[in-house]
């Protein structure tokens, strides 16, 4: 979606500060550099099973081809490295690979390329392991496992995956980097450090070189190389793209958000995300047991003021439980109680009998949430006259397990695959103690539906039920920003892929 048009406000002071970085960038790339340049923070790792940041995901989706890929327009999964992914019961899945596929070193992509990589993710305890244990729930999958009973090779092009319960979204999940293949030589050597520095994938771009300043990716079948420049500072990226010294910037500073239209015209985009931040309610706290109290608190929060203030235009106010980057089955505007309405909030709280005593807003300390939690607490004090207090703690998960949490607490969820139920299921395990059989049955029905489309209706009914009882009120969802120079075209991105490097080209 395009960022909304606003009055241009050029920040002239930033130009002086950025002269030195821009000069250094020019010296490094030169005005006639044929490569397409992208600014980004450095990836934590390029091991696909351990990818844990946006830059790593962006690069992984160019260096590897997964079993499925996500359609840029609809967000729906489509077979890629897989010729077919089938199941008679949505619990036992048979994956058949396309013939003739190879890694960039010429070695074949086989069933073991995938199954061996998946076992490595679990054995090594990489970041993607929870997708096997908690989301897909592969039979026998657990961190540290050296063998997984639910993964079985049938032949070089066929393998079988058995889950603990039916999951219609399993094929959609397979587009995550955690499920990407690894060459046999690396599976045998287990030299993960070397492979993480210079990975060999099966995708359209190969890693040509890597330094502290940049990662160069070259097309396997000819074309322009792409250089991902290490530029963690949003101001430096923005100014470089504005001057034409960088083709694509993946970060935009908060104070330039309103000037993007003036600076770039139609060469900017906000990319909806797949995560949502909530304030959830402990079911054991009697003062917060009434849905009307929770709804009043929700209506008292001015989400736009927070996203445009302490969150620096990097988030979008939530209007649903499902993140906007989940395109299949997504509906906008489902949470009417997410709209700021001070009068309705006061009336609802009065109808519920009021709320006395301190209202602690619990959150994990040291994660950068202090400013926005303070702002929300101020809003609740102003609008509802309740004694809202920020309450940072170390070990929020343990406090929830011990049931010592006595007020709303911060929850973040990230959908593992593009389907509404992938956003809703984590809320049932968010530590609220919420136990509603009707909602749980709807979520289970959506997960085991005959098709992904058939799972949309029960997921929507579950969302409506969750918004009615409001065990967690949605606050906002993070989005990414892209701005680009006049030289480049084909700038597209998705919540599950990041910037699509393989779609970039240069204007004729």
UniProtKB/TrEMBL annotation:
Record's keyword annotation contains Signal: yes
Single GO molecular function: peptide transmembrane transporter activity
Database matches in PANTHER family: ABC TRANSPORTER SUBSTRATE-BINDING PROTEIN, PERIPLASMIC BINDING COMPONENT OF ABC TRANSPORTER
Keywords associated with the record: Signal
One Pfam assignment: SBP_bac_5
Gene Ontology terms describing biological process: peptide transport
Cellular component, GO annotation: ATP-binding cassette (ABC) transporter complex; periplasmic space
Gene3D superfamilies named among the record's database cross-references: Dipeptide-binding Protein, Domain 1, Dipeptide-binding Protein, Domain 3, Periplasmic binding protein-like II
Species per Swiss-Prot/TrEMBL record: Actinomadura soli
Signal peptide: 1-27
Signal is among the record's keywords: yes
The protein's name in its UniProt record: ABC transporter substrate-binding protein
Domain Solute-binding protein family, chain residue ranges per copy: 79-429
